[in-house]
Amino acid sequence: MEKTSGKIRLGDAASFINGFAFKPDHWGDVGRPIIRIQNLNNTEAEFNYYDGPIPEKYIVRDGDILISWSASLGAYEWNRGEALLNQHIFKVVFDKAPINKHYLRYAVLSKLSDMEKDAHGATMRHIVKKDFDNTLIPYPSIDEQVDIVSELDLLTGIIEKKQQQLKDLDSLSRSLFYEMFGDPIKNDKGWPVVLLESIASCRIGLTYKPENVCEDGTIVLRSSNIQGNEISLDDIVRVNCGIREQQFVQRGDILMCSRNGSFKLVGKVATIGDLPEKMSYGAFMTVIRSQYNPYLFEFFKLPAFRTQLGLAKTATINQITVKMLANTKIALPPKELQDSYATKICKIYEQKAAIHRSIDDCQKLLDSRMAYYFN
Q1: Rounded Cα distance, 13 and 15, in Å
Q2: Whether 153 and 129 share a structural domain
Q3: Burial class (CB in 10 A: 0-12, 13-18, 19+), 14
Q4: With 80 as the cut, is the pLDDT of residue 318 above it?
Q5: DSSP per-residue letters across 190-219
Q6: pLDDT value of position 122
């Protein structure tokens, strides 16, 4: 499809309504959910609720386009029922130019990297409304917009289906674990119970100073590098301070987030696979090294592990200490059974790796088409 000329300012294409400035004392357990940025970029994030009166402009309904313009930038279509809009998120109102709402969402997505470069703020990066409104996007006819959306939706749909396949494989891994080993807390199969310190070593990571951060040093893995129980290198930090050999990760290590501002992120894990270079890990991370991986890795992923450490929904704990890990009780099946499990689970890992490669290919194609249409 050929591109046509013509551009429009975002501020002339639609109105962008900023959310209501809810305060913590507004939050409750009843009423309509409050959409915060974490509810947009993490569908599993819990909601706060508000049961009081609020102007109509702050009410969000299915099909509304929302744009987070502070901290984490993004553009989304809401589809989780009537809710309330928090500050730092725009609701798009299509009351100006004739424009397809999905086309505008893709156009905004294509401009976010440029907007981020010009974002303001030292502690919380944000887009200035004037700069946002002045951002130019291509403005073809409505028919052309629909054609573009159809192509991009097709690629996006493929990616979403493959991401669902990854979730299904995770469910399969969990089912296989319970089938072979039983409930790890009830220990209904009567396996010997040991302390984690007897079968694994646990080490906290590297402490470094802001002045140690550089562009050509050693990568230090942090909480943000654990995405979906896998290592992601999309957001990396490098440092140039002295690192002892035991502070480097090894293939087969389990990397755990042991401290975070949100207790929900504490305890998330990933297994270290083949890395492109030697890497360390930060002070809020712990490495567990054991011959009983992947059994331990799958155990750490279970809700039962969080419950055992007191990391339930009502908990306020935001860290897992080495002592807590060392004293964790583990039902330990025979090594032969674990090896059989490892053989099966490795096949699932291989399937996931193939799906990830396919997602990467689709994402590159999607990025290429968006660049063609919008840049």
Answers
A1: 7
A2: no
A3: buried
A4: no
A5: ---EEEGGGT-EEEE-B---GGGEESSSEE
A6: 44
